[in-house]
Amino acid sequence: MCRMRNSSKNGLVFRSEDIKIVMQEDSYSGRSSRSHMIEGKSSFNLLFLLSPHIHLAAHNCERQFSFEKNQYILHYSPEEQVAELWTDSKEILQYLQIQINYQYIFNLINPEENLESADILENMIHNNFIFLYNQTPPTMTVEMHMILKEIMTYSRKGVLQKLFVEAEIIKLLILIFEQFNEKNTSHPTDRTPEIIRQLVDENYHRNISAEEIGKQIGINQNTVRKEFKAQYQTTISEYASELRMLKAKKMIINSDIMIKEIAIECGYEYLQNFTRAFKKKFGISPDQLRRQ
Fold first, then answer.
1. Which own/partner contact pairs does 175-183 have at CB distance under 8 Å and 24+ positions apart?
2. 163-167, 245-249, 261-265, range with greatest mean pLDDT
3. What does the pLDDT read at residue 267?
4. What share of the chain in percent tops pLDDT 90?
5. Interatomic CA distance for residues 266 and 269, integer angstroms
6. What is the pLDDT of residue 203?
């Protein structure tokens, strides 16, 4: 188990023969916060940085790394190693570590089956998923945030929890592989659609406009709409609506939060508008889904 310091909301979230999940979340701010994280021998470690200005130094590496909020890395460790993480003064330290045994990933991907699987495992072993672009760590998508929240709030134990966690980790890996492929098959200077989508991901709960996006990235709002639709074959509003509906559906199924509160969380001021949109999307009302 990871050894944590100066925290009250941290520790082991889940552990099986192949997977360990540890959450670090300080309950206070006001002075520098530090933590030690252990990566096991022959393990893949997903590290999601959930607070700003986190610094990392591995004990067997002279270099230090700095991360912004919502960045992540996928790191392979052939030997057990300890890393120290800390934040700047007055910042709360918050991150989540998912450690997965090498053999589990090997069996899951089955690199002996085809060349694509072998390439994925090769990229993972050589840590090509740490920095995707010009030494810039990748940014978590809204889907990744939703998966982490579901893992943290899942209440059942035993076999059901194990199956649920494994399924969610597979979803995370698929999202990471897709993000890696997207960034490495396009020209590095032509990232406008990706940047637009990232802004929509971060603001799915409100109606962020093409005009607002354009002002943030310095292009005309018509170009924003055109670039996004050309890349993703949908409009910005349709994409944001899809994200809201998917989040709402998962919250209805996996939580006891009131439907009205879920509607507000997903950007709907009026419950009737939310119910109408939800039924149009899934063919069933939120109340009916919860009663199933």
1. 175/141, 175/143, 175/144, 175/147, 176/46, 176/74, 176/129, 176/138, 177/120, 179/132, 179/138, 179/141, 180/123, 180/128, 180/129, 180/132, 180/138, 183/132, 183/133, 183/138
2. 163-167
3. 87
4. 36
5. 9
6. 85
Q: Output the CA–CA distances (angstroms, integers) from residue 59 to 39, 42, 73, in the order listed.
A: 11, 17, 17
pLDDT at 32: 62
Token pair in block for residue 91:
């910042």
- Residues sharing a CB contact under 8 Å with residue 222, sequence separation 6 or more, in sequence order: 210
- How far apart CA 49 and CA 8 sit, in angstroms, is 18
The number of beta carbons lying within 10 Å of the beta carbon of residue 99 is: 22
The two three-digit tokens of residue 140, written as one number: 């978590």
Whole-number Å distance between alpha carbons of 279 and 285: 5
Task: Kindly report, residue by residue over 36-56, the tens digit of the pLDDT.
Answer: 899 999 999 999 999 888 989
Contact 48, 24 (CB under 8 A): no
Place of tokens 């919250």: 251
- Going from the C-alpha of 152 to that of each of 100, 172, 260, 273, the distances in angstroms are 17, 14, 22, 29
Which pLDDT band holds residue 189 (cuts at 50, 70, 90)?
very low
Q: Which domains does the chain have, with CATH numbers?
A: 11-184 (2.60.120.10), 192-291 (1.10.10.60)
Amino acid, res. 83:
A
Q: How many CB atoms lie within 10 A of CB 219?
A: 17
Q: What are phi and psi of 122, to 5 degrees?
A: -60, -45
Residue 38: strand pairing partners: 82
Altogether, the residues listed in the chain come to a count of 292
According to DSSP, residue 91 is labeled: P
